[in-house]
Specification:
alpha+beta; Porin; 8-stranded antiparallel beta barrel
């Protein structure tokens, strides 16, 4: 863990050392420091085609996606040039897993448990704005360090639940991995406020997976506001 933390700190320091000279040398008008928040849905990669069926309505797609996963985040952005900005932040993604049937050894008694997977990426990267006008389309790329855990939500047998486990208890050890994200968005430049819509594909455990560990890739579709 110490080696990973040191590597992350080195990468971020290197980015800062590049950002400051580039901004100072730029002859345009880079934006200042902006902060903001995002809210939206998170969909695992194996369910994207099912959720985003364009024969469905927008409200239907949102309903299907929100039933699977939700996302809440905070971010910052700092202009390097008129079109390029350094960005970073943190997000909380919660996925509702399928119900699982468990059997108590020796009794044959079965009960159903519902769990949730929580993925928290800490990310840093760059946004490139294709236009500098009222409407600002952009693309982005980030590196990230993610924390993943699985927690208990509920059980059909509350006596088992309360005697053995409690809601919110972690069922698996928390793990940390390196990952990356690719994004595309559309921002409205309204002076001090900048609402935006963004689609981001997250590969949360590109580096550090153990043998047999599944890929945890997902799609974020979010609305946000920078100010």
């Amino acid at each position: 863990m110490n080696n990973i933390s040191s590597l992350l700190a080195t990468v971020l320091l290197s980015i800062v050392l590049v950002v400051v000279p580039m901004r100072a040398a730029d002859g345009g008008s880079p934006e200042g420091l902006k902060i903001g928040a995002t809210f939206g849905v998170a969909t695992p990669s194996d369910k994207i085609a099912d959720v985003y069926d364009f024969n469905n309505s927008v409200s239907g797609m949102y309903s299907d996606a929100s039933a699977i996963g939700m996302s809440l985040g905070a971010r910052f952005r700092y202009g390097m040039t008129e079109h390029l900005s350094f960005c970073g932040g943190i997000a909380y993604n919660r996925f509702n897993n399928s119900a699982q049937t468990a059997t108590i050894s020796g009794t044959g008694q079965t009960f159903v448990v519902n769990t949730a997977t929580n993925i928290i990426p800490i990310h840093a990267g760059f946004d490139y704005f294709l236009l500098s006008s009222l409407i600002r389309p952009y693309v982005g790329a980030e590196l990230m360090y993610t924390y993943t855990s699985t927690t208990l939500l509920s059980s059909t047998d509350e006596s088992i639940l309360t005697s053995v486990l409690v809601p919110g208890q972690e069922l698996e050890p928390k793990v940390s991995r390196f990952g990356a994200g690719l994004s595309a968005g559309l921002e409205l430049n309204l002076g001090g406020l900048a609402p935006f819509f963004e689609v981001k594909y997250v590969m949360s455990n590109l580096v550090g997976k153990t043998t047999g560990e599944p890929e945890r890739n997902f799609l974020n579709v979010t609305l946000g506001l920078m100010f």
